[in-house]
Amino acid sequence: MSQSLHALTKREIDLGLKEKFHFFSVPALEEAGIGKVSRLPVSLRIVLETVLRNCDGKRILPEHVEWLATWQPNGAREEEIPFTIGRIVLNCAAGIPLLGDLTAIRAAVMRQGYPAETVGPHVPVDMALDHTLTVDYHGTPDALRLNTELDLQRNGERYRFVKWAMQAYGGIRLFPPGAGILHQLNLELLAPGFLAKDGICFPDTLVGTDSHTCMIAGLGVVGWGVGGIEAEAAMLGQPLYFLTPDVVGVHVSNALEPGVTATDLVLHVTEMLRKAKVVGKFVEFFGEGVATLSLPDRATIANMAVEYGATIGYFPVDEQTCRYLRQTGRSEERVRATEILYRAQGCFGAARRGEVDYSQELELDLAGVVPSVAGPKRPQDRVPLDELKSRFTELLAAPVSAGGYGKAPAVSSIDRHVPSDGDVVIAAITSCTNTSNPGVMLAAGLVAKKAVALGLKTKTWVKTSLTPGSRVVSRYLEAAGLQEPLDELGFVVAGYSCATCVGASGPIDAELEKAIVERDVVACAVLSGNRNFEARIHPAVRASFLASPPLVVAFALTGRVDIGLSIEPLGIGADGREVYLRDVWPTSEELAAAYAVAANPEFYRETYAQDIAATDPMWATIPQAGGELYRWEDDSTYLKEPPFLAPELSRSSLKPILGARTLAILGDSVTTDHISPIGSIKSTSPAGAYLRRLHVEPADFNNFGARRMNHEIMVRGGFGNLRLRNLMVPGQEGGVTRHQPSGEELAIYDAALRYEAEGVPLIIVAGQEYGTGSARDWAAKVTRLLGVRAVVANSFERIHRSNLVGMGVLPCQLHGVNATDLELTGAESFDIIGLDEPVVPKQRLTLRVHRANGTISHVPLILRLDTPAEIDYVRCGGIMPYILADLIATVPAVA
Questions:
Q1: Alpha-carbon torsion 781, 782, 783, 787, what sign?
Q2: Which DSSP category does 566 fall into?
Q3: Does domain 654-676+718-869 match CATH 3.20.19.10?
């Protein structure tokens, strides 16, 4: 049947290139009477093409093609789709541990007599070392050099491992520190328009080890973020399995008003789609208004799909896509070929109303978008700019239980050496979300230029930084004459890296931080990023607001957030007159003139003309190791062989859980920042104590991000976020819990060790949206290493649920009851009943709660193993043991 499907749909196509190509036609399915493909959302047609092309009658069956071709907008979601991607992108945060896991699998394979090349990439892989730089130096001409040198010094051992991996595994293209942020590189360079292999051409598809991989959907590419453990499977040729999704269509009308930025738009969309509950769904933008959005504007919206909970926010390939490909230096032949292929597949252009069937349709009127920020703790909490002052004042007074700070109204200090509630202590133009968008970056430069001309200066207590996502940004800012005024206000390039957006904001003034802590000040950060979760940006910053780059500049000038920017002055100019935001905000004509200079394809061609890793002199200083296997060093505090193939971690998770205790009882919106170790390592923490025992000085602790390949450090930092609120220890914050039945208060890691010694299984209980945020597979890895067998929650974010499954931890969703209704204190013991084999997707289970007063409650659960493939993973103890078994079963041993 698979052969007949291929015979029905294989066509020759002239792409206008020298090579001759064939393709598998999605419209041909409808011609053959298989589904009404022309009514499918465009994003599903792209997925359908991959299923059709890879249909081999073994892993991918004709039924998979038929199920997706006959997709119903509101049908039952019971069929799993095997999605075979065309390429993979890796950031360093998850990518380096992924290479470590890959190396552990290779060692296990070789120990059993199989060749080393059994384990290696089956698809093209690009990797960027983009999460390592910290803004230690800022505001000075040598900040970029000093930060880069410190980055290489701190991470030298990790980088030696990466260099080894590049020679050990073929097919990985590397972008060293300072080359840019993965997603911006993907947009500007890596995305080829279409892919080809063995004479077959097909649409670009991918996954990446970062939640914001979905940014590429703005370019018409179906791709999203996964954890490193899922990416390993895809890299080794495994399809990614997911249930046929709902697809929410967002009908776009009208156009943005002058002065409204792409950042304002994405904050509006994030709030709107969070309220619409699109978690785990595809979102596809359609309608005539889509054509008014530039490609960078679309990419900004697509980037934050994770923030509104969707798998992707998809914009089909159209004329704007082709225009962007040309502007970023792609060849005319390649662009024309891309258009020809997408037209032939019926995938060119956004649908008009009524042309496509969606599970749900929402309205997005671009004319109704207003200038906004989001915060102070979540990206979906949009605040119209005109309401920020009153909203912040309300939050200060609101009780902590209501998301506030429980304080009296802020009173600004006359002595500006004394910090006050609402002071902006960090103002950062950062993150690929916005630095990939020339419109908002040029607007920031124009605001700076006008502010400098009028004599305004950045407030002295504000730490300013500019960390673009690519070197091209510097090329066009300099060409437009806008980098110099940014420099004058302190927005000097500090690195080409994620930096502040990922929490690597670096230190603020030590005396300022001391005063903030002693006075219990609600200090603020304003950044052009995508995440502002508690304690993410800086330990001393309690309120963080997402804003467009030009607004970041404006808040650096005011030095506070409790200001009405439309009616209060930014400051006093050189002539003694008050200067308002309207005086420095760029006009449409000024932006157009700057964009005419910036939109130069040569900037992109020249920047990416050479292999950056091969020509970077600083990267050349990293020693090169060889060999098929990495030589792990026993005394290394950075790199240890991953433990996830150990016998105790390779056993089936599908067995009843009896007599369990809770390691933590958590509320709503617990993020992977709360779970996965992130940020600095305190000397008093379990991880710090471990390093001290190894004679590492606190000054050399580095941070958890740099030590992700040492599981001994990472497990000690699990659930250690200083803002974590474990309801078992009410009134406290941080990684503490209460051991039962002793009632002793312990660090979470220490309690887990004691429970392990006692033979007691553990669970976590949580509320809504458990695992929101970054695609950190370590959030799942530490959960497993701490001995947690299951997580019981009201709902799960997509990526973290998949990561838990990949590590053999059971995600169990409460059914018909909320976690708060259980009135748990932590003194209870628990059984999870119904895990006896055979297990089916979304099987019903029962949580049996044994309370201290002797009563027993029975709580219904749904086992969130959504597909048969996920059941196979946990039956092996996780994806890594599954992959190892699969490789050994399919590859002949060396004689």
A1: positive
A2: T
A3: yes
Nearest Cα residue to 799 out of 254, 309, 221, 264: 309
Residues 372-607: name the CATH superfamily. Aconitase, domain 3 (3.30.499.10)
Distance CA 721, CA 734 (A): 5
Q: Under CATH, to which class is 85-243 assigned?
A: alpha beta
Strands 382-384 and 372-374: what pairing?
Answer: antiparallel
* CB neighbourhood size of 712 (10 A): 16
Tell me the pLDDT tens digit for each residue of 206-256: 999 988 999 999 999 999 998 888 898 899 888 998 889 999 999 999 999
Residue pair 184/175 in contact (Cβ under 8 Å)? The answer is no
380-427 pLDDT, tens digit each = 999 999 999 999 999 999 988 788 998 876 555 545 568 999 999 999
Residues 6+ apart with CB under 8 A from 494: 133, 135, 137, 138, 143, 144, 147, 465, 466, 467
Residue closest to 155 by CA, chosen among 213, 198, 103, 93: 93
CATH topology for 244-315+350-370 is Aconitase; Domain 2 (3.40.1060)
Distance in Å from the first CA to the final CA of the chain: 36
Q: Which two tokens stand for residue 470?
A: 């690519």
Helices assigned H by DSSP within 639-776: 672-675, 686-693, 711-717, 748-758
In the chain, which residues fall in CATH 3.40.1060.10? 244-315+350-370
Three-state helix/strand/coil letters over 545-565: EECCHHHHHHHHHHCECCCCC
Beta strands in 580-673 (DSSP E): 657-665
Place of tokens 């695992």: 771
Domain ranges in the chain with CATH number 3.20.19.10: 654-676+718-869
Range(s) for CATH 3.30.499.10 in the chain?
85-243, 372-607
Q: How many CA atoms lie within 13 A of 790 on its CB side?
A: 32
DSSP-assigned states of every residue in 137-151: S-SSTTHHHHHHHHH
What's the predicted TM-score (pTM) here? 0.90
As given in the structure block, the two tokens for residue 302 are 């697509």
Which residue in 583, 603, 292 sits closest to 447, CA to CA?
Answer: 583
Between CA 753 and CA 731 the distance in angstroms is 24
